[in-house]
Amino acid sequence: MKILMNYRPNFINHIIDKDLKSKKHTNVRTRFPPEPNGYLHIGHAKAICLNFGIAQYYHGQCNLRFDDTNPEKEHKEYVESIKYDIQWLGFMWHGDVHYSSDYIEELYDYAIKLIKKGLAYVDELSIDEIKKYRGTLTRSGKNSPYRSRSIKENLIYFSKMRNGDFLEGKACLRAKINMASPSMVMRDPVLYRIKYTPHHRIGKNWCIYPTYDFSHCISDAIEGITHSLCTLEFQENRILYNWILNNIDINTHPAQYEFSRLNLKYIITSKRKLNILVTKNIVDGWDDPRMPTISGLRRRGYTARSIREFCHRIGISKQESQIELSLLESCIRADLNKHAPRLMAVINPMKIIINNLPVGYEEKIEMPNHPNNSDMGVRHVIFSQEIFIDRFDFCEILNNNECYKLTFGQEIRLRYAYVIKAEGVKKDKNGNIICIYCSYDPFTLHKNPVGGRKITRVIHWVSATRNISAEFRLYDKLFIHPNPAVASNLIANINPNSLIISQGVVEENIIHSYSSGPYQIEREGYFILDHHYSKKSYLVFNRTVTLKESKN
Ligand code: ATP
Ligand code: MG
């Protein structure tokens, strides 16, 4: 496996180092175990970088295992997207893809084993009754009346469950542990439930499915996982993880360790909640560029390298925290600043007519594709008598904080081109400016004007005659609530300005370029061509990120 990760050792490495030193293990095997009930998000990227990163670091293996024992929510589409996203992030799993559903027979046999040991029973309480009987943190639970069934009876009833003799919700298999345990997960947890929804891989062959608690530890053991890494909410389940493995007489015993999940401000990292946004058409699918999914970030212009760098910077610990969105943005900015070729585009076009150039005048101007990397070459951009600038870059009367703008009587430089000066405007009958008349100084191409005139202001531009029309999609946070996961109403917290669409122009060179980007559009930010909506005749750009961190 190629080392891709800029890997920073963490507390889990200390554990593994010890295990290797004591010869508890001679090889390290981790796994990434997504449930195929949605697309991967940025939180999963953290778990992916950790699990695959550890395997790379120790020259071990990382398995990909779909935790697919919940047929109602799982689909093949999600399986395919997850496989794609992992590889796009730069990782490859060891050997074949695994599925918990591959082990369905073995898991069933282990359940039988527990029954035969008197450690599991078929319960016929309803889900609500099970909850009621469970008790609370301060009150111990109550035994189910079905708890005292004989082993023989349990074997019969469990096989009836498997044969489809019970309706959904009418019976389940529970571990027989301790209804008074201080640990709620040990109060006779459910191991199997009935589900008649066909499974995306095994169809209608089975109608009973193991719970996460039962299938996860056994799948880890079957695959010879040495270190099973999961997020902190499973800390409490660790005791059950070990109880099951200790009682099924399996000869490998992986160890579970927990780390804190990624929480990002203004971002949701729950497939279930992201699914609501998709099914209610609040967003344009799982890969909407505002979604924190890997596919959304990719469509937005994020690179795999920048996401890995982000995971590297946040590190791994047991500390719960909420990371600022600006950290993720600074990673993509740093990456694109270095790697993205430059391009000129005007998002809110306003025409400029240069008075002292002949009508139809055109001139090729050379520009670097990257100001600090000459290896990226140069391109030629047409400068013409009529050009577009951004209408917000002009003001008839400047306010104090607008000194970077074009205005009457003051000179300004067109990026990589000439110095111009505004001399007049044409307005429509409502007083709106339709075009600006300027003069240009023909002796200022790539050099300062004579007479010591200092030009500090620079604006971007595009030829008004040689350009391509384009749509620019400017994104902002999808939620206005800094912690949307706790907001009482997810939909009410959607940012109404999360997408602003603007019609503008881009330099003609884009049609000769073979790359969809990302580009740095001078002064406007980093952009990528949207692969869904862009056509040869109609370009749509997604803004990945602004050039600088916004102040709000
Ligand atoms: P979701 O609620 O989004 O479905 P999940 O934890 O149920 O999250 P899984 O598909 O079961 O999703 O997760 C696969 C792996 O990714 C698990 O090991 C899980 O702990 C890890 N993971 C999920 N979300 C995060 C997160 N926000 N930060 C770090 N790891 C995460
Ligand atoms: Mg899950």
From TrEMBL:
Record has Isomerase as a keyword: no
Coiled coil: none
Catalysed reactions, as listed in the record: tRNA(Gln) + L-glutamine + ATP = L-glutaminyl-tRNA(Gln) + AMP + diphosphate
Alphabetized PROSITE patterns for the sequence: AA_TRNA_LIGASE_I
InterPro entries: aa-tRNA-synth_I_CS, Gln-tRNA-synth, Gln/Glu-tRNA_Ligase, Glu/Gln-tRNA-synth, Glu/Gln-tRNA-synth_Ib_cat-dom, Glu/Gln-tRNA-synth_Ib_codon-bd, Rbsml_bL25/Gln-tRNA_synth_N, Ribosomal_bL25/Gln-tRNA_synth
Enzyme class, first EC level, given as a word: ligase
Protein name: Glutamine--tRNA ligase
Source organism of the structure: Blochmanniella pennsylvanica (strain BPEN)
Gene name of this polypeptide: glnS
